[in-house]
Model the fold of this input.
Amino acid sequence: MANIRNKDWAAYLYLMPVVTILLIFHVMPIFYSLAVSFYEWDLIGQPEFIGAGNYMRLFDDPMFYKSLWNTLYYAILSLPLSIISSLVIALLLNNPISAMGLYRTIYFIPVITSINAVAIVWNFIYHPDFGLLNKILAIFSIDPQTWLQDPFWAMPCIIFMSVWKGLGYNVIIFLAGLQNIPKHLYEAARIDGASRWQQFRHITWPLLSPTTFFIFTITTIGSFQVFSQVYMMTPRGGPLKSTMVVVYYLYRKAFEQFEFGYALSMAFVLFVIIFACTLFNKLYLEKKVHYS
Amino acid sequence: MRNFLIAVFACWLIIVFAIRQDDKASAGLVKNEVDAEGKTQVVFWHAMGGPLGIVMNDLVNRYNKSQNNYYIKSISMGSYDTLAKKVLASLVAGEAPDISQNYETLTKKFIKHHKIVCLDDLIASETEDIKADIIPVLLDNNTFDGKLYSFPFNKSVPVLYYNKDLFVKVGIDPEQPPRTLEEMVKYCRIITDYHKQTPGADRSVYGYGCSKANVWSFLNRVLQYGGKIISDDGHKSQFGDQTAINAMAYLQNMLKEGIAKEGQGFDHQNDFIAGKAAIIESSIVSKVYMEDSINFNFGVAPLPGYIINPNAELTIEESEINRGVILSGSNINIFNNGDPKKIAGAWDFVKWFTSTEIGAEWSIRTTYLPVRKSSLQSSIMQDALKKDPNMAAPYVQLDYCHFEPRLSVWFEVRDLMADYLEKATIEMGPAEKYCEQMARDIDAILKHASD
Done:
């Protein structure tokens, strides 16, 4: 009996460092932020309690709705794009071809590169006058576009870059999922005369669903939190605010206009939205997942 | 594997050590840390980087060596944005610096919450009448309700940069930069057309370059057209006025005609350096950054003005041109950290930095405006002006220099203005429409503003 208790204590001791760090740097700030979201505060003076004032103002703020819509647009476009492209690449990389390690490395390099560095390089690629993209389009005699300065193209440009940047990560996860599918299923299918598409549709896709579900959930959460690339590539939230996403908007409110309470109320609304999405994924989509 | 790890760790150590050494060397701290002993340390946060930071560090070092009472510990925060964030965070944490550069909007908040020292109290004990020697517009800019709360420090004005070689090429007198807005349009047209029509000429050369959604440039133009920014009581904007509409339409028309181009960020400056933009409007401080990369003759001129009531002969008399420019850059605040010795040290440094001689040197080396009238008249300034006539443009403009409204909501207002300016040149609809909407939205903010 005493032994077990001792073991418990040892476990708590091991847990302590991480729990302490989480408490101090995550849990406490979260509750502190929640409290501040009910105040009007510019950091200099005393916070003034205004109840739900910040939240009421939020539901009246057209720019907040615009930023929500932009975030949704980003999520809706980047989710399928990133899942389909990484799945296709993972399927290709799952074949026994030569120099496989090299390909896997190449796809993973963008993931480990700093997003800021990547954004600066892509700024050059998208530059209207001497950008690589317009130079390539010129070969096919397509007129140069202004890309990041064009209200229509700015967001797709950022989405494309983000999908490219995150590709390697998803590919690695998909590859791990693919390796987990027992080979004998494919052998059996081949003996039964199943085509490659049938093998994918009836073996790979269902057995990969836990992986797909994981990537879907993680990517959803990530796309609601998109910030760095917007901040780096489209200062001020893009042409006609076409890339103003929620996190960037709350950053501007907090750190450029110093309306901390207001910015934090935005953060909590975003939290609720992400939480609801994840709950939906968990409760509804997970039912369709086959855990073998 | 183990050897490999040790090698990696050793490399890492060497790199970290090298960076530390380099940091210390560039900040000039290696030697000065010893000097700081026995002196009152005054912490100074600023946003001067690049060539400006070098001048700043040099002057701070000289101040530290010049006397034995105070040691200024200057820390560069990179940008104004970062600086403002750090200052606010430090106030919350109760660890504010002793001096920092700040915009007027923040100064107002500091006054409200008693975070800064009123400089009138410090000036009162001076034998010299410092206020009488401060350039009037700079004094007004830092006076709040009749009291001096911040000190002008690094103020700049916008100027025109023009490519003299291009002027000569198309047959414009390179010593006659455009004096009026109409003249500028004419010049831009000549330059663009020449390069479009002359066989073999670089077709990408254009007249006027500026950055997108440039609030500063728009406000300058509103003044040039004889307009005002906001009403005297500060509760109503004047952007519905014809002057604002003219200011907006001016750029729209040039863009529509293809004789001007808008770029992102500093694109217009790069175009100017590359010889593609013949005329650009930018801060005088950009000169320090561009100078070394420009390999053609260039001129720096005051911004053009507007003739509100043209005479019958339609000649251009200098006295009839209505000019106007707006100050940019920041002021300095002394924080009330409760230690009179630190406050005295801070004030001593500010006084030294903006004194006749040092102020003139700072102005010559960075192109920022000097604080004192006597700096402008000093012999080193006069000599420098003879050597580089391009330096004169900012000083000439002091006569008609203004500053933006110092409202606590001004950042928000500026942001909104930038949105409408951007919209106006992307959609290219009638300027009246955007100005009207801009005025309406801004008035909604101003109505609720406490000041």
